[in-house]
Amino acid sequence: MTADGPPTTAPADRAAVLCGLGHWLPPTVVTNEELSSRLDTSEEWIRSRTGISTRHLAGPNTATSDLAVEAGARALKSAGGGEVQALVLATTTPDHPCPATAPDVAARLGMTGIAAFDVSAVCTGFLYGLATAAGLIAAGTAERVLLIAAETFSTLLDPQDRTTVPIFGDGAGAVVLRRGSAEEPGAIGPVVLGSDGGRRELIAVDAGGSRRRADGPADTAPDGYFRMRGREVFRQAVERMGEASRSAVAAAGWSLETVDRLVAHQANARITSFVASELDIPTARCVHNIGRVGNTAAASIPLLLSQAAQDGTLTPGHRVLMTAFGGGLTWGATTLVWPGPDLG
Ligand code: UT7
User: Fold this and answer.
1) The CATH number of 1-344 is which of 2.102.10.10, 3.40.47.10, 3.40.50.150, 3.40.630.30?
2) Ranges of each domain in the chain
3) Is 56 among the residues known to form the active site?
4) Residue 81: which H helix or E strand, with range?
5) For 34, what's the count of Cα atoms within 13 Å in the CB-facing half-sphere?
6) From the CB of 268, is ligand 1 less than 6 Å away?
């Protein structure tokens, strides 16, 4: 406390603590068999190469904000209501190029007036958002933050592209973070983040931004679609999530043997297995939902947390390691001890 200014608080008392959790999936479920009937692929190829059996897809009248509002409302309810001073939305698929989608989501949740903005880090978006939200709390800008990660990734895909359509699904997950102590369960550990723009070509949508304009002469339909160099991305994902996980565990003062649950971005079941093996984390400690929802990009980790809390895969006291990798390239990892039973 200063003599004549406002009270100052030690950083340890301005940690971000998880206190609310929710998710939402659009109701339409598409099976591998359905995709195989219109694409040059097979149920067996998709399941064996990715671990995916079904995914949820948003219909033509559903935008990212619609999923975000549903997930955000559930997270706020799980947190017992109350005010938040900021809404951070992690997404690769905003409703519009301008403005950001977060202010609209905040207004529809009845929170006009609060800080609201988007974070764009593709599949690492939730972890970038987590670091941002924790920073808002540490800086004194907010006491409580709603962080939503929502995607309608299907809107980026070439419907004829068998290399991307089977992989991605739509969905949203959300968390509420409150100011608390770094020592209490639910406190977000140090967040390790990284990027490599030199490899941006591995995951990209070429057209529609300022470099290649949507109405410019170079624009052709395929350039507006998402593309990915899968095999190289796979290799980078395993390497980067492994490295980031080691750094986050060390920064938290943990050791890898004490990790109870690995919550890795659900890109491919084989990628999660390789990361776990690289870290010597037993397969039984890996949390999965990719079989049911596919790769939901930024939404992947909070969606998985929310479902795992509901089905009892995550229980109070579990030491949880989260890691993600995505376009940019971007990657990250962080830790938390799973908080009380009233979440999810
Ligand atoms: O979310 C973060 C970023 N994303 C990721 O981390 C995803 C990382 N990458 C992957 O998960 C995998 O690379 C994929 C699932 C995308 C692809 O699996 P793969 O085992 O790496 O396959 P591949 O790209 O090396 O292709 C192997 C073969 C190719 O045929 P040829 O050239 O060997 O004759 C592909 O044309 O499989 C073919 N193929 C398919 N065949 C049937 C590719 N997609 C399909 C398909 N059905 N859907």
Assistant:
1) 3.40.47.10
2) 1-344
3) no
4) none
5) 12
6) yes
pLDDT digits (tens, 9 = 90+) for 231-251: 999 999 999 999 999 999 999
Minimum CA distance residue for ligand 1 atom 8: 234
Peptide bond into 190 cis (omega under 30): no
Q: Which residue's CA lies nearest to atom 41 of ligand 1?
A: 41
d(CA 28, CA 25): 9
Token code pair at residue 299: 């939404």
Cα separation, 131 vs 128, whole angstroms: 5
Question: Are the beta carbons of 52 and 166 closer than 8 angstroms?
Answer: yes
Q: Which residue has the tokens 């949880």?
A: 320
pTM: 0.95
pLDDT, one tens digit per residue, over 159-208 is: 999 999 999 999 999 999 999 999 999 999 999 999 999 999 999 999 88
The predicted-structure confidence for 292-321, as pLDDT tens digits, reads as follows: 999 999 999 999 999 999 999 999 999 999
